[in-house]
Amino acid sequence: MASTDVARQPGQGVRPLSLAGHVGFDSLPDQLVNKSICQGFCFNILCIGETGIGKSTLMDTLFNTNFENLESSHFEPQVKLHAQTYDLQESNVRLRLTVVNTVGFGDQMNKQESYQPVVDYIDRQFESYLQEELKIKRSLHNYHDSRVHACLYFISPSGHSLKSLDLVTMKKLDSKVNIIPVIAKADTISKSELHKFKIKIMSELVSNGVQIYQFPLDDETVAKVNTTMNGHLPFAVVGSTEEVSVGNKMVKARQYPWGVVQVENESHCDFVKLREMLICVNMEDLREQTHTRHYELYRRCKLEEMGFKDTDPECKPVSLQQTYEAKRQEFLVELQKREDEMRQMFVQRVKEKESELKEAERDLQGRFEQLKRLHADEKAALEEKKRLLDEDQSSFGKRRAAAQLLQAQSLTANGKKDKDRKNIKRQTQVALWADLGRCCYYTGGINDSRT
Amino acid sequence: MLVLALENHTVCTDLFGYVGIEAVLDQMRRKTMKVGLEFNIMVVGQSGLGKSTLVNTLFKSKVSRKSCTPNCEEKISKTVKLHSVSHVIEEKGMKMKLTVIDTPGFGDQINNENCWEPIVKHINEQYEKYLREELHINRKRRIPDSRVHCCIYFLPATGHRLRPIDVEFMKRVGKIVSIVPVIAKADTLTIEERQEFKERIRQDLAANGIRVYPQKEYDDDPEERILNDRIRESIPFAVVGTDKEHQVNGNKVLGRKTKWGIIEVENVAHCEFANLRDLLIRSHLQDLKDVTHNIHYETYRVRRLNESNMNFSELGLSARPLENGTADTSESESHL
């Protein structure tokens, strides 16, 4: 009896006992199966291959249905992934199948980055599972698992060897997903060429260190079958959804003028082997490998990247909480520092602005003073002029009064002094006109219209 | 640089012929058989109620503490000590690691206040151990599961009602583990007395808000609800345990021989042992484990992570904001 995990656990006095009667816990697998039937299963397949190599047709043939995929063009600028989820039911088993196809793979002129979208997609599914797992309130048993369980890599049937694009892509993916390489459109290769092709492919994979998925050998009910199948990798498949009558049956086949290639005939192609291995025998193992190997690796790398460790430099076990607390402190300190920096910057800017404004204020003040002075000067000058004018006016008034007095006096002293009087009058008038002229001269500065 | 076209609606597709999907059921069965099963059961009750005998009868082998340590004197211990014994038993290729956790001293002292504390502490310790393992960076492939999946609580067959110690214990422990109450030594009750006793116990349980397994809230679909309703109508099971066999009508049966007759343990007309066994082992074994893992453990985890304020999204792990980082508002009677 193969030893199981249970018996191998270190016993604190674990001893095997024999039962005196039928207890009934052998029904546990049935209980588990019933629960799973209620919940349903989920399976995600990723198909990578060049456009037109037969990915959609093979999926249709594998699951015996029509997935309604449209043909894609050869002119995609980048590789894209197209995922579609289907609910299939066979007797009482419900399967939620997600088929992810690459679109435009191998079509670009420069294929250096072709693998990147695929790697990113796989990582994104791991990431969302990891986030769900790390949530405080989580519901893992209800979670729709979208991690890729199996990756079918379609190799084009050149008959020679793998392309470098194939090698590079598979190398990038082998630690993230279970890779099952298949030779597509295998009806273009003859039996002898196929044998050589398969050997060449496997040796190239081995020499480049690509780890493809090996069917598990630890369960003896299926070990034998799996060992045989491991020797037939990669499977050479032909896909077809059309039916052709052969003998008296309708079989899935491709009709050529020279014959009919039957899809489910094991001597024609390896389709039946692929379906057997992928679905009937190893579906559960594929899911388990994805969860326990690929996902754990991703999780470990991601958490280590974030700085979480299991043991600190002295090799003492560190609980996640301590690491978390340490990180949190670090984070808070960082936050505080940044806050301080921002505050300082803000204060500085305010100071600068303030000094600028003060400067401007002083400037304005200066100009204002200057203008004020100018005005005062002008005003003083004008005051001066006004005073002089007033003086002249008053002296003119005085002289006029004096002249009139003189005239009055000369009128009373009749005639002899007329000439004198007239002379004096004329003199006075001349003097008056001279005064007036001077006044005008003075007022000329104020009254611009004269000049 | 990356453009992803992801269509999120699910299409219902018909299969034209056989594919082989149902072979996955076989795969699951094989995997379960290969991996084996761990089951941890705790028995709680005063001395002399027949806990060890019942467990031996349930698993048809000497799994209890008394059978493992035949030389220890039966002194009543001063405090409740927990004693766990593990065995590996196998049936038709299915291996089970069964751990029985016994609680000698429970309810035996004069002052029984807080006698549930060591038990609650033990249960929480197991959750804590599992949580730590789960949070490791380098995790084991299969985390060893020592969490208590089921706790059988023994009620003495007084025929009256639940006692204060019963109410207190079940109230507190029923929140963190699946409790299955049983009436011990039920051969002292007649059928009518038994029915009345059970009815009163059910009333008491409802009045005190005690949730025993199978809890109503966790029924997934109508079928399960019908099945569980029937079970809920007949708990607590009135059981009799023994490991002696006697001849009845030419058959060897497990039974207790008394002057007035032989009480057949596995006869449903005599006692409800068979119902209990079917519930625990034959039909709800996986469910007990699932309820412990998905509900009780998750409750513990939420409380623990909230207590230590571990919110990974703060450290930038999640790009999407968490919509449910709220703390669990259950009364914290943790004795961590």
UniProtKB/TrEMBL annotation, chain A:
Stretches assigned to coiled coil: 343-391
InterPro entries documented for this protein: G_SEPTIN_dom, P-loop_NTPase, Septin
Domain Septin-type G: 39-305
UniProt entry keywords in alphabetical sequence: Coiled coil, GTP-binding, Nucleotide-binding
Tree of life domain: Eukaryota
GO molecular function list: GTP binding
SUPFAM superfamilies named among the record's database cross-references: P-loop containing nucleoside triphosphate hydrolases (SSF52540)
Family: Belongs to the TRAFAC class TrmE-Era-EngA-EngB-Septin-like GTPase superfamily. Septin GTPase family.
Official protein name in the record: Septin
UniProt lineage: Eukaryota, Metazoa, Chordata, Craniata, Vertebrata
From TrEMBL, chain B:
Keyword Transferase recorded: no
One of the Pfam families matching this protein, by short name: Septin
The keyword Transmembrane helix is assigned to this record: no
InterPro entries noted in UniProt: G_SEPTIN_dom (IPR030379), P-loop_NTPase (IPR027417), Septin (IPR016491), Small_GTP-bd (IPR005225)
Keywords for this protein: Cell cycle, Cell division, Cytoplasm, Cytoskeleton, GTP-binding, Nucleotide-binding
GO molecular function: GTP binding
Compartments in which it is found: Cytoplasm, Cytoskeleton
CDD domains found in the cross-reference section: CDC_Septin
Residues in Septin-type G domain copies: 35-307
Any one Gene Ontology cellular component term annotated for this protein: cytoskeleton
Predominant subcellular localization, coarse grouping: cytoplasm
UniProt-listed GO biological process terms: cell division
The family this protein is said to belong to: Belongs to the TRAFAC class TrmE-Era-EngA-EngB-Septin-like GTPase superfamily. Septin GTPase family.
NCBIfam families assigned to the protein according to its UniProt record, in alphabetical order: small_GTP
Protein's name according to its UniProt entry: Septin 12
Native species: Sander lucioperca (Pike-perch)
Encoding gene per record: septin12
